[in-house]
């Protein structure tokens, strides 16, 4: 069993969470598939931290054997993006989560 496609999916989710849009915004399925298989994913220069950018790019490597996580999840857990993460607390569900502001569709931050 391989989790390499799961790590790729995690990269897509992180991209959308941090940039507010999908990396592939083509209108048709065939265009999306072409982009997935042939085009490099572009991350705007000032859209996120260097650690976040590196994590996303490492998870979205087209070749699964070059993708972060190819050995095991430890590769991802030790990435600098997660540098301050206490994984023991995460596993035990003891991590405190900040309360987030709920945005409505009119908010400038939503766009």
From TrEMBL:
> What GO molecular functions are on record for this protein?
ATP binding; protein serine/threonine kinase activity
Supply the alphabetized keyword list: ATP-binding, Kinase, Nucleotide-binding, Serine/threonine-protein kinase, Transferase
Protein kinase domain sequence ranges: 1-82
Pfam families, sorted = Pkinase
InterPro entries xrefs: Kinase-like_dom_sf, Prot_kinase_dom
Name used for this protein in its record: Protein kinase domain-containing protein
Q: Which organism is it from?
A: Euplotes crassus
């Amino acid at each position: 069993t391989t989790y390499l496609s799961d790590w790729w999916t995690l990269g897509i989710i992180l991209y959308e969470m941090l940039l507010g849009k999908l990396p592939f915004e083509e209108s048709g399925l065939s265009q999306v598939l072409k982009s997935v298989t042939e085009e490099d994913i572009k991350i705007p220069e000032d859209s996120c931290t260097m650690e976040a950018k590196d994590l996303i790019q490492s998870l979205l490597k087209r070749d699964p054997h070059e993708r972060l996580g190819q050995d095991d999840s430890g590769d991802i857990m030790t990435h600098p993006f997660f540098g301050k993460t206490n994984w023991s607390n995460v596993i035990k569900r003891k991590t405190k989560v900040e309360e987030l502001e709920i945005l409505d569709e009119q908010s400038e931050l939503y766009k």
